[in-house]
């Protein structure tokens, strides 16, 4: 079963409904997922030092945490950068995303955290919702498939195609062009 792709309105509603222990960090975690499309294991393995702050900030996904075993760089949007700043706090080293008692998440425990965040908001979702949502938004905005493939860190385009959903706006846009 494919992960749910959330609209902009649904993402805003999810963020609005986040409550409980440290809601700002919970929101930042979701925003990081939505803005970068990283896999759960990649998010869990990120270090504070994997962020390159410059005129063009980027995130380095090290080969050791990448599913494909290949490193890649992802340029950071302002939303992703702000989420990272909230998650990193004032730390200069160590894991970027920490759970309770300031311990790093395992990929499994982080996946469970995502499930609980979506459940608490009353909206279906999983770790892969951010990944599928980003891929779909990129294609909807006209990004070439090889660009989406590179961002997601796939070796072949077939894998990337599994993450892209067809939205109503895509269908409308192309039907208008065809008319």
From TrEMBL:
<feature type="domain" description="Tyr recombinase">
    <location>
        <begin position="1"/>
        <end position="176"/>
    </location>
</feature>
<keyword id="KW-0229">DNA integration</keyword>
<keyword id="KW-0233">DNA recombination</keyword>
<protein>
    <submittedName>
        <fullName>Tyrosine-type recombinase/integrase</fullName>
    </submittedName>
</protein>
<dbReference type="InterPro" id="IPR011010">
    <property type="entry name" value="DNA_brk_join_enz"/>
</dbReference>
<dbReference type="InterPro" id="IPR050090">
    <property type="entry name" value="Tyrosine_recombinase_XerCD"/>
</dbReference>
<dbReference type="Pfam" id="PF00589">
    <property type="entry name" value="Phage_integrase"/>
</dbReference>
<dbReference type="InterPro" id="IPR002104">
    <property type="entry name" value="Integrase_catalytic"/>
</dbReference>
<dbReference type="InterPro" id="IPR013762">
    <property type="entry name" value="Integrase-like_cat_sf"/>
</dbReference>
């Amino acid at each position: 079963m494919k992960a749910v792709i959330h609209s902009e309105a649904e993402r805003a509603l999810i963020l609005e409904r986040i409550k409980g222990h440290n809601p700002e960090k919970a929101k930042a975690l979701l925003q990081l997922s939505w803005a970068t499309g990283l896999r759960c294991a990649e998010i869990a393995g990120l270090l504070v030092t994997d962020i390159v702050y410059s005129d063009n900030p980027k995130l380095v996904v090290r080969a050791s945490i990448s599913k494909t075993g290949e490193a890649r760089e992802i340029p950071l949007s302002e939303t992703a950068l702000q989420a990272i700043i909230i998650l990193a706090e004032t730390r200069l080293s160590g894991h970027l995303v920490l759970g309770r008692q300031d311990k790093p998440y395992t990929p499994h425990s982080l996946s469970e955290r995502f499930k609980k965040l979506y459940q608490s908001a009353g909206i279906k979702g999983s770790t892969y919702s951010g990944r599928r949502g980003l891929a779909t938004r990129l294609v909807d905005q006209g990004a070439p498939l090889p660009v989406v493939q590179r961002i997601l860190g796939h070796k072949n385009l077939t894998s990337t195609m599994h993450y892209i959903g067809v939205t109503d706006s895509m269908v409308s846009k192309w039907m208008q062009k065809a008319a």
